[in-house]
Amino acid sequence: MATKPIGLEVSIAVAEAVKLCDVDVVAAYPITPQTHIVEHLSELVADGELNASYVPVESEHSAMSSCIGSSATGARTFTATSSQGLALMNEMIYIAPTLRTPIVLAIANRALSAPINIWNDHSDIMSVRDAGWIAVFAENGQEALDLTIMSFRIGEHPEVLLPVSLNIDGFTLSHFIEPIIMPEKSEVDAFLPPFKTDLKLDTQKPLSIGLLAGPETYTEIRKATDDILVRSKKYIKEVFAEFGKAFGRPYNVVETYRHEDAEIILLTMGSISETAMTSVDELREAGQKVGLVRIRLWRPFPVEELKEALGQAKIVAVVDRHLVMGATDGPVSFEIKSLFYGAPKAPKVFNFILGLGGRDVRRADFKEIVQRCAELDKVGQKSFEIVGVYE
Amino acid sequence: MLEIRFHGRGGQGAVTSAELMAQTAVGMGKYAQAFPSFGPERRGAPVTAFLRISDQPIRVREKIYEPDVVIVLDPTVMSVTKVDAGLKKEGVLIINTSHPVETVRRQFNFTQKIATIDAMAIALEILKVPITNTVMLGAFSKVLGQATPDDVRGPFTHRFGSALGPKNLAAFEKAYAEAKMEG
């Protein structure tokens, strides 16, 4: 088993993981901060190190269209994008799940315009939240690499056959150089069998996909897609467990840190979680009972796991990286509140938004949140609060 | 944990410096993290890069606000950027300059320890280009005792190839031999 880390840019690690997965087709359009991923893949293909078709399309809409077509023929397919690129893909993003095309899409998460901004938050992924994709968030470079490999295995699972979005915070993760263990090709081959499916476009066994569905079947087809997505959690957990056994790095759909006796639990997604962990350590040293719960699997939403992880806390501070205009909560907070609505013993849920458009997320921000929770405990909170906003 | 901030201008390799040093540290079995101050990068504009080196896993991704070390690749940025902002009292400045330490200290009111190196002269002599990053890494490695020429050989060769790798190593070695802390 490969165990020695090398210092590597996370984007490059993701591209190398895609290579280790023997992808057949990459169709992509460059956009900051995702560009290094597909740039590196195009080099690998051009240099003959990766035997794949690289399709340099003219837009992200075409990228996702090509990916759906290629995946529908049974080819292992990858693309990557960010922000406005994902927005331009939107029409095709909604089509991939119901056509059961297990594309892997790396999103180097970046703010949506306007104002134009190339930096990190989660507004891009939230704009396709309801599309039916499996969505996972990486916390660090090793996870980004590991989840790339697992995403193919999960999406292509015969009981799943759904596209997977792998969310990597733009810049604060994608552009970091950090220690990453690169698995051996033989290890990846043993873990990830070739993609095989009977549900594919094949000239020998012709079939049609993506046809018109009238009012008498549309509801059932949409429900079937949702059923599969919800059911996929079981297989995602199996793949996580198998990966842990094969590579020695265990994964869960929800991760916890010092949460067991915590009165206040911070709930986070993505790369800010490491900074939050350090904040938790510092707050614990100062005698405060604070813990962290991190969502790795965003869709399907891990209802039972989150109920268990958060249920004993007095207060849950939900940290969102996206502002839902005209509403009371961020997207994660809405989920957590509905999770506990009507429950006899429920934690108080307070919502904080931070790190929009690349504003630095610091240890001090989490300390401020914890301090604010103590005040809100007495007076309640009507709607989300933005940490560190100038008004 | 050692926190280092690099100041330079676009094109001088501040980001590459942080990256090479992180790769060197990881190769030596330590934990390290390097990242640029992300922005629209333009040749000649002031740029910042960050580096953390630690014996423990690094679990923080915020920028470095209170560095232990500040490395100035280009002396002209000191007139437009307060390079010692947040620098710890017991911290160190490593500055590329041809001027004596006291002149620099007086001009910018630096209060921390300073190490100077005429990196531009070394770069022009050995590399024949005004790119000071690997020279400054030589000075840093010596002053902070972080890495030896042997430690950086691998990462340099990987990054610069067989033609430029040895030249950059020679530039590193010269700075490694010449750099010294003031006093």
How many domains make up the coordinates of chain B?
Answer: 1
The fraction of residues assigned to DSSP E strands of chain A is 15-25%
Number of DSSP helical runs of chain A:
13
Can you say what the CATH homologous superfamily of the largest domain in chain A is?
A: Thiamin diphosphate (ThDP)-binding fold, Pyr/PP domains
CATH topology (level 3) name of chain B: Pyruvate-ferredoxin Oxidoreductase, domain 3
The CATH architecture classification of the largest domain in chain A is: 3-Layer(aba) Sandwich
Strand order of the largest sheet of chain A: 3-2-4-5-7-6-12
| Helix content class of chain A | 25-40%
CATH topology of the largest domain in chain A: Rossmann fold
Describe the protein.
- The complex is a heterodimer of chains A (391) and B (183).
- A seven-stranded mixed beta sheet of chain A has the order 3-2-4-5-7-6-12, with helices on both faces. A six-stranded mixed beta sheet of chain A has the order 9-11-10-13-14-15, with helices on both faces. A two-stranded antiparallel ribbon of chain A has the order 1-8.
- Chain A is α/β, with parallel strands linked by helices and 391 residues long.
- In chain A, strand 2 (25-28), helix 2 and strand 3 form a beta-alpha-beta unit.
- The radius of gyration of chain A is 21 Å and the shape is globular.
- Chain A has 13 helices and 15 strands.
- Chain A folds into two domains: 6-247, Rossmann fold, CATH 3.40.50.970; 255-386, Rossmann fold (3-Layer(aba) Sandwich).
- Chain A has helices spanning 10-20, 35-46, 60-72, 83-93, 95-98, 123-126, 141-155, 185-191, 218-247, 272-285, 303-310, 331-340, 363-379; strands at 6-9, 25-28, 53-56, 77-81, 104-109, 134-137, 164-169, 177-180, 254-257, 264-268, 290-295, 297-299, 315-320, 348-353, 385-386.
- Chain B has 183 residues and is α/β, with parallel strands linked by helices.
- Chain B has one domain: 3-Layer(aba) Sandwich (Pyruvate-ferredoxin Oxidoreductase, domain 3).
- Chain B contains five helices and seven strands, in the order βαββββαβαααβ.
- In chain B, helix 1 crosses helix 5 (149-178) and helix 4 (133-144) crosses helix 5 (149-178).
- Chain B is globular, with a radius of gyration of 15 Å.
- The relative contact order of chain B is 0.17.
- The chains are: A alpha/beta (391), B alpha/beta (183).
- Chain A binds chain B through residues 5-9, 33, 118-119, 171-173, 175-179, 271-272, 274-275, 277-278, 358, 360-363, and chain B through 18-19, 22-27, 31-36, 38, 40, 58-63, 65, 155.
